[in-house]
Amino acid sequence: MNHFLDIHKTDPANLRRIIDQAATMKTARAGRPRGTPDDEQPLAGHMVALIFEKPSTRTRVSFDVGVRQMGGQTMVLSGNDMQLGHGETIADTARVLSRYVDLIMIRTFDESVLIEMAEYASIPVINGLTDRTHPCQIMADILTYEEHRGPIAGKKVVWSGDGNNVCASFLHAAGQFGFDVTFTGPGQLDPEQEWIDLARSKGATVQIERDPHKAADGADLIVTDTWVSMHDAQSARERRHNMLRPYQVDSALMAAAKPDALFMHCLPAHREEEATSEVMDGPQSVIFDEAENRLHAQKAIMRWCLGV
Ligand code: CP
Q: So what's the pLDDT on residue 200?
């Protein structure tokens, strides 16, 4: 049994196996109607609990569809509707769910909830996003980069904006997949030093550059995310916008990168804030491939977790 809790907690060989299997499974479905099952049904007889304590479109739908394509069944649970949201401990919830289902995917606030769920569950647990990390998204992003441009190892990834949970998982991936990260954003919103140190300890070059145009020089990939994440106080919205406005990804910033650089955003986006529509809908953007690849990457993650 394998949990998929964070990219830095999964060894590089297994991460590579997951990406390769995702690509293979995606190819096998090419041209097939979306509602049809895969030829292989590795999740037949399996029940998957999808727990959401925060809103979601992509994660909810891609996990649900992915399980069904592989022959399994899902139950989508809202944290508020469960006893978990009314005082039952995480440990007890994990033990109880382990008697009913075969796999848990949880999107929650504090990562301690995820960690405790995994500690007490006797079935695999997948991180569907916490305030601190978003590993499934970055597995989809690696798959997306590689299907457009080949191996990501040795490439320069520039993160522009808020050093948030998605940025954190990019730093984890830098150490595991061997690419470099330049963060450009206001000093108050730097990624956690722990994640920078971790990536560097694994051989990745991580740079902080306050000038976004200098940061973008030589970039193979430019990535951004919303300026106010789900866990940020709405009262901080105006202050964050003022700090982050210079880091908007527009066509001038893309022009500072390599001519064949890609643009990514995990979505949902606030158009004309963190990125312009010109970039989001432009020829370098792969944002909807990223969204599709959540499906394929997570199917491979679930197979790895269950060993099927
Ligand atoms: N990128 C992402 O996780 O999207 P959702 O919040 O819609 O699941």
A: 98
DSSP 8-class letter at 85: G
Angle at 146 between CA 141 and CA 148, to 5 degrees: 100
- Token code pair at residue 205: 């070059």
- DSSP letter for 4, please: B
Largest CA distance in the chain: 55
267 lines ligand 1 (CB under 6 A): yes
Q: What's the confidence (pLDDT) of residue 86?
A: 83
Left (φ > 0), alpha (ψ -120 to 50) or beta: where does 203 sit?
left
Long-range contacts (CB closer than 8 Å, 24 or more residues apart) made by 85-88: 85/53
**Predicted pLDDT at 234:** 79
169 lines ligand 1 (CB under 6 A): no
Is the CB of 107 inside a 6 Å radius of any atom of ligand 1? no
Burial status of residue 150 (CB atoms within 10 A of its CB: 0-12, 13-18, 19 or more):
exposed
DSSP assignments along 103-146, one per residue = EEEEE-SSHHHHHHHHHH-SS-EEE---SS--HHHHHHHHHHHH
Residue nearest to atom 2 of ligand 1 (CA): 58
Name the one residue in this structure whose structure tokens are 């916490």.
Answer: 130
| 259 preceded by a cis bond (ω within 30 of 0) | no
Task: Give mean pLDDT, residues 130-146.
Answer: 98
Question: Which residue type does 229 have?
Answer: S
How far is residue 166's CA from residue 180's CA, in Å, rounded to a whole number? 16
The helix (H) or strand (E) run that includes residue 183 is strand 180-184
CA 105 to CA 63: how far, in whole Å? 9
| Residue 24 identity | T
Q: Specify the pairing of strand 73-78 against strand 180-184.
A: unpaired
Considering only CA atoms, which of 183, 237, 179 is closest in space to residue 212?
Answer: 183
Q: Which of 46, 107, 172, 303 is catalytic?
A: 107
